[in-house]
Design brief:
The protein is an alpha/beta fold. The protein has eleven helices and nine strands. Helix 1 packs across helix 10, helix 5 packs parallel to helix 6 and helix 7 crosses helix 8. Keywords: Oxidoreductase.
Length: about 290
Amino acid sequence: MTQNNRGCAFITGSASGLGRGLAVELAGRGTPLALADLSAEGLDETRRLALEAGAPLVSVHGGCDVSRPEAVNAAAQAALNAHGTLRYVICNAGVGFVEPLSKTTLKDIEWIFGVNTFGVYNTIMAFLPTLKAQGTPATVLCTASMAAVLTPPGWHLGVYSASKFAVCALAQGLRDDLGEGPVTVSVAYPGVVETNISANALSLRPTSGTPAPKLSEEEARAATENLPDEFKKPGMTPREAARIIIAGVDRGLTDIFTHPDEIFMHEAYSRQMTEGFRRSAELVAG
């Protein structure tokens, strides 16, 4: 492949779901793509769709386990070799997790944070020297979740939510590190989007130190019956979510919400916190 000086979009978790939607959306704008994921089969399909949508150059980087820095570093170097410069670094790879805290294991925690939190950190660190050195406009986009804004009571999202809260903090840490300059940092907070994140989580969840076997569609459907009702509603299409997110990046938004009508949940959480501040002030006053 020859180098392309237009700047590529490096996208983790781009074999399916929102990652694929982001890839196809950017492809339609003529953006060269570097697609990274564990699934080689899924990446091939995303590559086909991206080329059809207008991407001038697409490189594929399978076997990219974002929880392993050496895997991300290798994919990053291969992407830079293929494209030369960066326009977007999209830290999108993630796994879902809905489970009562008492039923989680240490392996679960290490796995969830390994992908959702350390995966973002590893991707940022793999490209940070290049982003600082190239001196051209670029955006780091981190996919969080509405669960990064609050943890809905009764939904058993504590572990997942904790891993996504951390993504927002990492993004701010990156802004502090970059300071004023051509590289901006945005965080996307998707609501319910039509992805296979829940089924993937069930298939990839560690058991005895190794991933569980891939579930059939029927097994995955049965295993997700206990999800909160909100998760069972028809979700936004990945392409529509991607359109909103990239439009937000174009407008320089620091925080981008695919479902802004869900602000009522944030407002309820804010009221709870405000009450905590108020009543704590009474304690301080004696």
